[in-house]
Design goal:
The chain has 108 residues and is mostly helical. Helices cover 71% and strands 0% of the residues. It contains three helices and no strands. It has helices spanning 8-28, 32-39, 47-94.
């Protein structure tokens, strides 16, 4: 199986995008009543308004399931990103050369 290379910057971007999606999904339910108010009752009819209410009721359950799954994915992406950044930092620290390290290097 070939190696897969993923840049940490791409993980960070993905993490940010997932967080934005989660905010949109979470806030979507709050906007339903505003939409229904904008629709109102044209010509005294409420059928369009009722359809938006029905749609929101069905979509609400599906959206909550998506939010739950996306939250897990976002958390894993963030954990993976943090893990790689911590590894990189620790690896860099272990490779640091001190001032007196030159005295132990072989001489020509």
């Amino acid at each position: 199986m070939p190696d897969v290379y993923v840049k940490v910057e791409h993980l960070n971007e993905l993490n940010g995008s997932l967080k934005q999606i989660l905010v949109e999904f979470t806030d979507a339910g709050k906007r339903t009543s505003a939409l229904q108010d904008m629709i109102g009752r044209p010509d005294g009819e409420s059928s369009l308004r009722d359809k938006t209410h029905d749609f929101e009721g069905g979509w609400d359950d599906r959206r909550n399931a998506l939010v739950e799954k996306l939250t897990k994915i976002q958390s894993r992406v963030e954990g993976t990103c943090k893990g790689w950044q911590d590894f990189d930092l620790n690896a860099a620290k272990s490779l640091k050369v001190t001032e007196d390290a030159g005295s132990t290097l072989p001489k020509r």
